[in-house]
Amino acid sequence: MQLDEIVNWINAAFGEVTPRPAYSDVEALKKIFGNSGYQRYLQDQGNRQIIRDYLTNAVVLGELTEGGLAAFASQLVSEDSRATLALFMLMSSVEEVRDLVVSSADMEKLKPLKPMPRKQSHIKLVPN
């Protein structure tokens, strides 16, 4: 399944958002919010929310002390580092919070992964 298909399925499962603005309002909103700058702003706000929720949960669950929050300071200052951190937080449990503290040198080493083809499963179902 392609990423776009997954996103489209999730959006469809949410159902229709109400109330829906009139067509003339939609056109005005597109002029105001349709540019790439606003989209980057929205993405950054989403990343900030993910980081806030994750770190709050880590402190509440005792996986991170309030003093331990300072270790994340360098990762919170730039848009790119927030995006990277938010992605790792989405893929990690709160119990792995200590593994997410990385230096700026480590952040520079990160490279996008290339998906590898899946190998055929070796599991065979045996009927009863």
Describe it:
With 128 residues, the chain is mainly α. It is built from six helices and no strands. The protein has helices spanning 3-14, 23-33, 36-60, 73-76, 79-90, 104-109. Helix 3 (36-60) crosses helix 5 (79-90). The model has no long low-confidence stretch (mean pLDDT 78).
Give a short summary of the structure.
This protein is mainly alpha-helical. Helix content is 55%, strand content 0%.
Q: Helices and strands in order, then pairings?
A:
Elements: H1 3-14, H2 23-33, H3 36-60, H4 73-76, H5 79-90, H6 104-109
- Total number of helices: 6
Shape field:
extended
Helical content stands at 40-55%
| Structural class assignment | mainly alpha
SSE ordering:
HHHHHH
The beta-strand count equals 0
Main sheet record: none
> Low-confidence runs (pLDDT<50, min 5 residues)?
none
Q: What is the typical, i.e. mean, pLDDT?
A: 78
The value of Rg in angstroms is 20 Å
- End-to-end Cα distance, whole Å, is 32 Å
Q: Note the beta-strand portion.
A: under 5%
Which features does this protein show?
128 residues, mainly alpha, 6 helices, 0% strand
